[in-house]
Specification:
With 178 residues, the protein is of the alpha+beta class. Helices cover 26% and strands 33% of the residues. It has helices at 7-24, 27-33, 68-80, 158-165, and strands at 56-58, 65-66, 84-97, 100-112, 125-139, 142-152. A 6-stranded mixed beta sheet has the order 2-1-6-5-4-3. The N and C termini lie far apart (61 Å).
């Protein structure tokens, strides 16, 4: 594969690198992909958290995490408690405006936790469907993740489908002749 040349290709590559680092459990790589104040030329020793470039993250079911410390700690916790994770990304859309890029996608996740008993390779595998928005900022070192927001997709049940076919009790009767 040739090196990415357009902004969209570069953002796609940064987004792919993020998910691949998560799959490998490579904390250092994940950390290097997140924006730092220094990436924007801001002196980190005098950096006000309200200034530009502060990162944020929302994992499914978690509160908003703000700042590199909170965000990176969350990844350390996730990696420590996940023996296996694989992302199959679908519906990927990239939009670039100036030095900011937005990637929206569906994360089809397969994960496994620790083995319940010694001798087993992996705990039970669990599938999850999540929609995500990843916001990137252009830096001298390339595109860096500024914000990640992931929300679970509620699965439809057969009961939900039946409810859509049955009119509500207070719906007027259809007296139209057939």
């Amino acid at each position: 594969m040739s090196a990415p040349h357009t902004d969209v290709e570069q953002v796609e590559a940064a987004n792919t690198a993020y998910y691949e680092a998560l799959e490998r459990g490579d904390f250092e790589e994940v950390a290097s992909l997140w924006l730092t104040p220094a990436d924007l030329g801001v002196d980190e020793s005098y950096h006000d958290p309200a200034d530009t470039g502060v990162v944020s993250c929302v994992h499914p079911g978690w509160p908003v995490l703000t700042g590199r410390g909170e965000v990176l700690r969350s990844y350390a916790v996730i990696m420590a408690n996940t023996d296996y994770i694989q992302f199959f990304l679908t519906d990927v859309h990239v939009s670039v405006t100036g030095d900011t890029a937005l990637v929206t996608c569906t994360e089809n996740i397969l994960s496994g936790g620790p083995a319940p008993e010694e001798g087993e390779e992996l705990g039970p595998l669990v599938g999850q469907l999540v929609v995500a928005s990843n916001v990137f900022r252009r830096t001298p070192a390339g595109w860096k993740l500024w914000s990640h927001h992931a929300s679970p997709v509620l699965a439809e049940t057969d009961e939900d489908d039946e409810d859509q076919d049955t009119p509500p009790d207070d719906a007027p009767a259809d007296d139209t002749p057939a």
